[in-house]
Amino acid sequence: MNKFQAQVTTSRIVSYPGSTFGVAAVAGTFYLLGRKHNDTRARETGLLSAEAAIDSLIVASALKGISQRGRPLIGRERSEFFDGGDSFPSGHSIQAWSVATVIAHEYRDRRLVQVAAYGLASVVSVARFTGGKHYISDVVVGSALGYGIGRYVYRAHHRAGDAGQAPTSNTERLLITPTYNRAAGQYGIALRWSF
Asked: What three-state secondary structure class fits 192?
């Protein structure tokens, strides 16, 4: 295996946490640990992370469908928009940054958690570029959109009174919760809007 192939393989492995399954695992872990240990902040982090991941997936899918930019490895030196691709923006970057931003805002009193969250999101974003999956502009725009989505979700839906957090004054609250019925083998998402 040459250096380029090794770099692509390493980048592919490093970018897994930014995939839909990766961010779902992070959100699910926060939620389940919060339930197990009766930790309301961890549980809320899981719920808000799931909401941010879903929102970022919707935004990324819409923008990919509209922009239709080809990926770098299709053989062209540079890919134009509206050319039948799905490169812009980076879905891994937008999802990783949206979840990282929620986690960093929920745990703003813990600097190490913030550094870890933003650091992992940065590594995922860089790996998408070094792996040849996206142009740098795809990654930068995806990261910025993810940060904005995560910040919006946190500010719009954060519950007041958690440790180290300022109260919010939202009267409307959209809550997205995972549902699970083990006996019936059913999985899903429940939406609740209270105002």
From this structure: strand
Please tell me the CATH code under which domain 3-162 is placed: 1.10.606.20
Two structure tokens written together for 78: 């540079």
Stated pTM of the model: 0.77
Do 177 and 189 meet the contact criterion of CB atoms below 8 Å apart? yes
* Position 21 confidence tier, pLDDT thresholds 50, 70, 90: confident
- Choice between 131 and 170, residue whose per-residue pLDDT is larger: 131
Query: Do residues 168 and 158 lie in contact, with contact meaning Cβ atoms separated by under 8 Å?
Result: yes
Query: Which residues, 6+ apart, have CB-to-CB distance to 61 below 8 Å?
Result: 91
Peptide bond into 167 cis (omega under 30): no
- Cβ atoms of 163 and 43 closer than 8 Å: no
